[in-house]
Amino acid sequence: MTLPIVSTPIPPPGDEIELLARASALAGYNLGELAAHAGLVLPADLKRDKGWIGVLLERYLGASAGSKPEQDFAAIGVELKTIPVDSRGRPLETTFVCVAPLTGNSGVTWETSHVRYKLARVLWIPVEGAREIPLTRRRIGTPLLWSPSPEEELLLQNDWEELMDLIVLGRVEHITARHGEVLQLRPKAANSRALTKATGEFGQPIMTLPRGFYLKKTFTGPMLARHFLV
DNA sequence: AACTGATCATCT
DNA sequence: AGATGATCAGTT
């Protein structure tokens, strides 16, 4: 297996087969090898570069880079997610999905939600994430091209509806990360001083911490496990 | 081990 | 301010 040339931006994949082939070709390489081959300087750790691995893999796979509110592979409708895993392939972190809308939610439904859109088709790439492993030696795992099963989608929908109901009812500040079986709502902000508009208990406008939807490890764990078992 | 709030970089 | 890419680190 040989690494693709990445010194020049590589074109988006034409279809899922091509995308999966590119991702599969990266499996087994470590971050030091991929960084060197791409001519990038690997950070000492991820403390100040939390999205570094995601950006690196975007580059190798031909994702439309940057911060556009679109899927990573818009043309083929696929989202890319790297997920840090332990030695047994279990997730080490929750997975950010998208920012939660805290205002203007009258009439929003699961069918039209950003969560459903983002998760409709995801290329999961596990990456060794144990902190004992130096960043340079952490290896890329086998990719998984995934869509939620009917059961998984129902779990997601139920949680999304529960959380959105609370938001609409002005109870966003009462929501904890325990609400939801598989989806949780937590801060997603530059820092604790960042505020956004929301609706309060009495329907009044309030300023609160921006929130995001995250997939719990109890969701992504079994999802990955099933894949690597089969 | 899960939860929880906080945080970092970059771009539009 | 809010989107992209997420992980850190203390507490329970």
UniProtKB/TrEMBL annotation:
| Gene Ontology terms: cellular component | cytoplasm
Which ranges carry the DNA mismatch repair MutH/Type II restriction enzyme Sau3AI domain? Answer: 61-159
UniProt keyword annotation of Cytoplasm present: yes
The beginning of the lineage is: Bacteria, Pseudomonadati, Pseudomonadota, Gammaproteobacteria, Enterobacterales
Task: Give the signal peptide, or none.
Answer: none
Give the NCBIfam families listed for this entry.
mutH_TIGR, PRK05070.1
Q: Which GO terms describe its molecular function?
A: DNA binding; endonuclease activity; hydrolase activity
Q: Which Pfam families match?
A: MutH
The protein's location, in the record's own words, is:
Cytoplasm
What name has this protein been given in UniProt?
A: DNA mismatch repair protein MutH
**Similarity field:** Belongs to the MutH family.
Keyword entries, A-Z: Cytoplasm, DNA damage, DNA repair, Endonuclease, Hydrolase, Nuclease
InterPro entries cross-referenced by the UniProt entry: DNA_mismatch_repair_MutH (IPR004230), DNA_rep_MutH/RE_typeII_Sau3AI (IPR011337), DNA_rep_MutH/T2_RE_sf (IPR037057), Restrct_endonuc-II-like (IPR011335)
What does this protein do, in the record's words?
Sequence-specific endonuclease that cleaves unmethylated GATC sequences. It is involved in DNA mismatch repair.
What SMART domains would the database entry show? MutH (SM00927)
Broad class of the protein's primary localization:
cytoplasm
Q: Organism, per UniProt?
A: Acerihabitans arboris
Give the UniProt record's GO annotations in the biological process aspect.
DNA modification; mismatch repair
